[in-house]
Design a protein that fits this description.
100 residues, mainly alpha, 3 helices
């Protein structure tokens, strides 16, 4: 019946929306975690440099600033392939639906 089909469609849309929210939250968390991990490794590498190396640097503050903003850079770099992948999958699904 029409009501049963409508209820089923609403349920499917709600489940799809919930999975998109979960996927978005998981992706955001994993990008943040990856950015913090890379930031920590780079910070440790900079701390392990000796005073001679630091003395030869023309702009040491630039390196510290780079480390500070690194999580955002990593997040942005990781978003691009994900966006491209999602769009390609969406196009493939749309092509499959049109052919049916």
């Amino acid at each position: 019946s029409f009501r049963a089909a409508t209820k089923a469609m609403v349920l499917v849309e709600l489940i799809a929306a919930m999975t998109r929210v979960l996927q978005s939250q998981f992706a955001s968390y994993s990008r943040m975690l990856m950015g913090k991990t890379v930031q920590l490794k780079l910070f440790e590498a900079l701390l392990n440099k000796d005073m001679t190396w630091w003395g030869n640097q023309k702009e040491p503050h630039h390196l510290i600033t780079k480390v500070w903003y690194l999580p955002d850079d990593v997040k942005n770099a990781l978003e691009v392939p994900q966006i491209i992948f999602n769009r390609v999958v969406s196009i493939i699904i749309q092509i499959g639906l049109v052919r049916q």
